[in-house]
Amino acid sequence: MSPPECDRCAQVRTWQSVVVTFVAALALGACTPTPPAATTDLSYQSKLIEQLIDAKPGQVIEIPAGRHVFDRSLTLRTDDVTLRGAGMDKTVLTFAGQKSGAEGLLVNASGFTLENLAIEDTKGDAVKINEGERITLRSVRVEWTGGPKTTNGAYGLYPVRTRQVLIEDCVVRGASDAGIYVGQSTDIIVRRNRVEYNVAGIEIENSRRADVYDNEVARNTGGVLVFNMPNLPEAGAGTRVFNNRIYDNNTANFAAKGTAVASVPAGSGIVINANDQVEIFDNTLRDNATAHIIISSYFSTGYMNSYSVAPGFDPYPEAIHVHSNRYTGGGDSPDGLDLKALKLAMMGLSGRFPPVLWDGYADPKKLVNGRLPAERALCIRDAGAVLNADGPGNYRNPILDEKSFRCELPPLAAVAWDPAG
Amino acid sequence: MKPRGWGFLCIVALFSLLGCHRAPTPQFHAQVNPEQLSDWGILHLDDGTLKLAEGVQAYQLPTPLFSDYAQKLRTVWLPPGEAARYSSTSVFEFPVGTVISKTFYYRRDASQGGRVQEAPALSAATLDLRAVRLIETRLLVLRPGGWVALPYVWNEAQTEARLTRAGATLDLIRVKADGGEVPFAYMVPDSNQCAGCHAPNIKAGALQPIGLKARHLPAEQLQAWSAAGVLRGLPAVTALPRTVDWTDESIELGVRARAYLDINCGHCHNRSGPADTSGLVLDASAVPDVSMGVCKPPVAAGQGTGNRRFGIVPGRPDESILLYRMESTDPGAMMPELGRHLAHDEGNALMRRWISALSGSCGNHRS
What we know:
The structure holds two protein chains of two kinds. Chain A is mainly β. Helix content of chain A is 11%, strand content 38%.
């Protein structure tokens, strides 16, 4: 979906981003409480690092209220440790002067809990958990305080290769890739978080069984992404996105080129890319200016070619079930020339895209009489006609189509893991 | 090993500080982490010279990890009568009690004030402290529970190195050969960060040495150890893997580039390493296709893409994310993630030449 560049749209984009950044700065200024006085005292850094080195399983490390300054990343490698602050606006770990380390906090351990604190202005990812089980991130605020910038760290909360992950009541702002990014993981719950001014609000990638619900997803470039990337050991499937409020995700895309999210048009509510068995229901989607829901294949990322994708990768989204969502506004000002032209052609100057766009790619090898078999179908209810953009036909014959999507898929099961237990 | 009293240790330490000529004996500490490096007895000071204790073996890697232009004095010591077992592919199997040390140092620049220069390669197993400035000595110690990493930082007076488990950041200035000065923050890792490189299997998480593998060590070195009885099971020299000096122009460019990537990236970018999440394999086992980055779109590089689309674009180093991240000094973008703040100009020049010489393309793409 990356539009061809031209000088004029580069200009427009620049102005958009200036305005958005300015507005964002105002909004952030308005809702961030004044932190305790800044200091460059690094004395707490050594203390916390030694606590992390000496941590024993079962230990709770309390980080007192205050603004703690770090110039290097933190690493934890002991299982069953809790890091706890005095509140996401009281205990602030700032990495604005970070000299080394690709993260704020890097964890390689199971049974890890991080709660009640804030991590600000890391050079790279804020919190990365690489390999582990039973991971809880609760009431953590991650923020890049200068607003959306390409030079901000990529990911806010980033568990990868993990199992049984709970992310709840967190706030993430300003990530130059995804605010909450769960990659290559299994049995995931992401709930009651507030994610805003990120390129992607929440991204579930190459993961199996995820429940994303009760989140407030606003003013990102794209709200919730459910992606599968090639060249990784496992494909993802089985994500439910429900009961979220996803609105005003119209921030100009500020991701570095080359990233997967750089191809996400501003104004996207929910984007599925190449992922299977996704159920989207009971969400409130409002004023996402490109489209509330985009169902797309890997072809639409612009990366699909025989050099870039290892054999065996399935680029098609299949078994997608969209129903019972509430849609308001949106679709009236899509991002990029291709989508603008498509909207003009299909809906007219003052018209708007329907809630759901599909890029039109389906695996020709799986089609039976021109249709996907029932268990792999795209079933879209309560959303009117779907705009099929006709990607495979070079976007020459887009159509509005309701009938082809009239089907039902069995509801996906809830994540079978009780975080309270 | 006979237990020795604290008094003995103190005397040894005192002698070494005073420049006594009697060399200390290496000590394996199975439980405590001594606060002073000298308590290990591996290295000692003798009349302004850093020397190795009896039985401590120095070794060099023809293709080492780049660490901000620091030179490294590497040693290994095995408890008396013990030997390591050879492996053709993995780290040699060492006995409990083995102590490996790596001392990072620079040429001492006359103008001082944190100014340092790249030191010449080690010619003898001693260091003249009038010529070099010692920065830190990292120990890897094999205890019954596994390898333990301990960073020691040398004091200004260069008389002792102290255990600095939380790591340290030193503000230094690199004086280049042409006289140009580059300030940088030299980072001593904390004990947990040592695992960032020394735990090559992210699931197991166990620490390991990196350089003490057959493919990194010259045959002469292995044969010397074998002759000295500290390495068992060494096969005939013809059966040893080829060791590559990355600067040796007589060796094929691609072979040198791969050796460089192996030692600088392979500890994370292997099939079970911390960077297996990226799908990018750069160790000796890598095959030159998409898994080695050729035409590979990034998975989670974030701003580390540098606005480039593929890991390696054949013939086009300036479109290759790999080179961008090796040239970057931004902690959020650079590779490796730890252990350097300066770009390795000579190593990057090798990468540039190698990528330039690769044939093929990544197809037609909009960039």
